[in-house]
Design brief:
Oligomer: single chain
Largest sheet: 8 strands, mixed
Number of helices: 15
Strand content: 15-25%
Radius of gyration: 28 Å
CATH superfamily of the largest domain: Bira Bifunctional Protein, Domain 2
Helix content: 25-40%
CATH topology of the largest domain: BirA Bifunctional Protein, domain 2
Shape: elongated
Number of domains: 2
Length: about 425
C-alpha cells in the first residue's frame, strides 16, 4: 500500500496546513513575549539518552520508541519527546556557562509507537518550552502563565489547570515505601508490567493505562501527603503565585506524568472531560541523570499541535482561511515570457501573484481568479505588453483602473 501513509501518520496540506501554520505562529509569538529563544535538535538521538533521561521503566521507553541500529552498530531512537534532546544540547554546547536562566522553545516532530487516537499520532508534533537553571517556583508559575496566555490567544475556553507535587528524591523514599506496601495487597490483580514496575519504580504504576490497574490506584497513597518541608514550601509558594496572577487551578493528586524525570511540580491543562492538552512540570534531576555530574534544576512543558487542533475542533474555534494572493495575472496570447517577466517583477516588489501555467482561456482564468479569491486581476495580452498599460480589475465591485505596468505594484498596495 505504498500510496497510503503508514498508520499513525498524516500529510499536512490545505486547510489543516493553514491551521498548523497559524498555531505555530501563535506559539512563536507567545514565546517571544517571554523572551524564549528557539532551538532545533535532531530527530534521532542515541537510545541511551532516552532510557536514562525519560526512564527505562516508562511506557515510552519500554513499549513506544522507534529504535534501530545504524550502520555503525549504534543504537539510535527517533525522539519520543523533546526535553531530553534539549538538555543534551544544553550540556554539549555548555549553555550553563552563560549567566542567568536558559529559556528555550521548540516545535518538533516526535515519534511513539502507540495506538493512534484523537489528537495523537505515531508521528506527532510538539510545541515545548524548557527553563533550565532556575529552582524557584516562579519558573513553574511562568510556564503555567505562558500556557494560559497561549490558550487564550488560540481561542480555547474549556481549559482547566491541574497541579500536583510528586516530591523530590528524599520524600519519594517514604512515599514509595507506603505505595509499595499498598500495591502488594493488590499485586495479583495488577497487570504483568505493573507487577514488575512496583519494585523498580512503584510511581509508574500510577500512570498505567490498564483499567484494572487504574481502579486499584484510585485508593493508593498520594504523593502530596508525603512531601518534605522543602517540597511542601515550594508547592505552597507556587499556589500563592498562581493566585496572585489570577490563574485558577485545581490540586489533582492523580497527576504523576508519564516520564521518570519529573520532580516536585507536575501540571496538566485539561478540558471538562479530562482530556489533556498540555503537560509539564519540574525535573531537577534530569541534567545530572544525563551527564552524571552537574546538579542543575529545570522545568518545562510539551503540547501536541495535533492535540491543539483537536481541542479547537471540540470548541468550534475557526482560525480563518489562508490569505489569497494579492493579484491574479492573466497572461494571454504569444507573450508568455514577457508576461511572466512582469509577474516576476511584481513578486520581487512584494506582491503575491498567481498566474496561468496551463494556457487556459481568459474566461477560465477569470473563473479561477474568482475561485482563489484574488482581490485584483490584470490581463497581460499582446496589446497591454505593447502599450505598457493595463487595467487593474477590483473583483469585489467590478471597477477597473487603468495604469502603467510599472505602477501595478503601487496600485495593489
Amino acid at each position: 500500500m505504498i500510496t497510503q501513509a503508514p498508520r499513525g501518520t498524516a500529510d499536512w496540506f490545505g486547510d489543516e496546513m493553514h491551521k498548523r501554520e497559524v498555531i505555530e505562529q501563535i506559539c512563536k509569538d507567545t514565546a517571544a513575549l517571554y523572551n524564549i529563544k528557539q532551538i532545533m535538535t535532531p530527530v534521532f538521538e542515541h537510545t541511551l539518552l532516552f532510557s536514562r533521561g525519560v526512564g527505562d521503566t516508562t511506557d515510552v521507553v519500554q513499549k513506544e520508541m522507534y529504535t534501530f541500529e545504524d550502520r555503525g552498530g549504534r543504537s539510535i531512537s527517533l525522539k519520543p519527546e523533546g526535553t531530553a534532546g534539549v538538555i543534551r544540547a544544553y550540556l554539549e554546547h555548555s549553555m550553563y556557562a552563560e549567566s542567568g536562566l536558559t529559556k528555550l522553545f521548540y516545535i518538533t516532530p516526535a515519534f511513539r509507537y502507540e495506538k493512534p487516537q484523537s489528537g495523537r499520532l505515531r508521528q506527532h508534533h510538539q510545541f515545548g518550552v524548557e527553563y533550565i537553571g532556575g529552582k524557584s517556583p516562579l519558573v513553574e508559575a511562568e510556564l503555567i502563565s505562558l500556557v494560559s496566555t497561549l490558550t487564550k490567544k488560540l481561542g480555547l475556553n474549556d481549559i482547566e489547570v491541574h497541579i500536583n507535587s510528586i516530591g523530590c528524591g528524599e520524600c519519594r523514599k517514604e512515599y514509595n515505601k507506603a505505595l509499595l506496601e499498598y500495591l502488594k495487597k493488590h499485586e495479583d490483580a495488577l497487570c504483568p508490567t505493573c507487577r514488575e514496575r512496583m519494585t523498580r519504580n512503584p510511581l509508574r504504576v500510577l500512570d498505567c493505562k490498564v483499567e484494572t490497574c487504574k481502579e486499584i490506584v484510585k485508593d493508593a497513597p498520594r504523593t502530596i501527603d508525603y512531601l518534605c518541608d522543602d517540597c511542601r514550601d515550594h508547592f505552597e509558594e507556587l499556589k500563592s503565585i498562581l493566585e496572585e496572577l489570577g490563574i485558577k487551578y485545581t490540586v489533582d493528586t492523580g497527576i504523576v506524568r508519564g516520564l521518570d524525570y519529573y520532580t516536585k511540580t507536575v501540571f496538566e491543562f485539561v478540558n471538562r472531560d479530562g482530556f489533556t492538552l498540555c503537560g509539564g512540570g519540574r525535573y531537577d534531576n534530569l541534567v545530572k541523570e544525563i551527564d552524571g555530574k552537574q546538579d542543575i534544576p529545570a522545568a518545562g512543558f510539551g503540547m501536541g499541535l495535533e492535540r491543539i487542533i483537536y481541542f479547537l475542533g471540540l470548541e468550534g474555534v475557526d482560525l480563518g482561511e489562508a490569505a489569497p494572493p494579492d493579484l491574479y495575472a492573466a497572461i494571454l496570447g504569444d507573450v508568455r515570457k514577457e508576461g511572466y517577466s512582469i509577474v516576476r517583477d511584481l513578486r520581487n516588489a512584494g506582491v503575491r501573484v498567481e498566474t496561468d501555467y496551463l494556457d487556459k482561456s481568459l474566461k477560465a482564468q477569470m473563473k479561477y481568479a474568482n475561485k482563489i479569491k484574488a482581490p485584483y486581476v490584470v490581463i497581460l495580452g499582446e496589446d497591454e505588453i505593447k502599450e505598457g498599460q493595463v487595467s487593474v480589475k477590483n473583483m469585489a465591485d467590478g471597477t477597473e483602473v487603468r495604469c502603467a505596468i510599472s505602477e501595478i505594484a503601487e496600485h495593489i498596495k
